[in-house]
Write a structure and sequence with these properties.
The protein is mostly beta strands. It contains 1 helix and 7 strands, in the order H-E-E-E-E-E-E-E. The chain has one domain: Immunoglobulin-like, CATH 2.60.40.
Length: 118
């Protein structure tokens, strides 16, 4: 009797957790995390494993937020590119939040890149 209950509980847990495996995940970015760049990038590209809508993108350096424009009217896509302002040498933190078009869940993350200059 206990064995059947354990099997039922396990199957129920797998079914309930199943959609969590479908969340959007950041596959890569340009510039990539921890990159040290001689020249400041003109844009930032985030590549996901499924279609997303970018909800939030913040860029900070030395504790100050740098204004970045995100077009929230763009259709969902697996790749999102935003133009960057002219960046000085320094370490930059990218924080992003995206809404998965497939399951409606929000995923988020952060990474850094550094502009070292010439």
């Amino acid at each position: 009797m206990h064995k059947h209950w354990l099997i039922a509980a396990t199957v129920t847990g797998v079914i309930m957790c199943g959609p969590a495996f479908g969340h959007a995940k950041l596959r890569s970015s340009q510039p990539p995390p921890d990159a040290e760049l001689r020249a400041a990038p003109k844009s930032l590209t985030l590549n996901f494993n499924e279609d997303v809508r970018l909800a939030v993108l913040t860029l900070t350096a030395a504790g100050k937020e740098i204004r970045v424009s995100v077009d929230r009217n763009m259709p969902a896509a697996p790749q999102v590119t935003v133009m960057l302002p002219v960046l000085a040498a320094g370490k930059y933190q990218v924080a992003w939040s995206a809404l998965s078009a497939g399951d409606g869940h929000v995923t988020k993350g952060t990474f850094f890149f550094t502009v070292v200059g010439d």
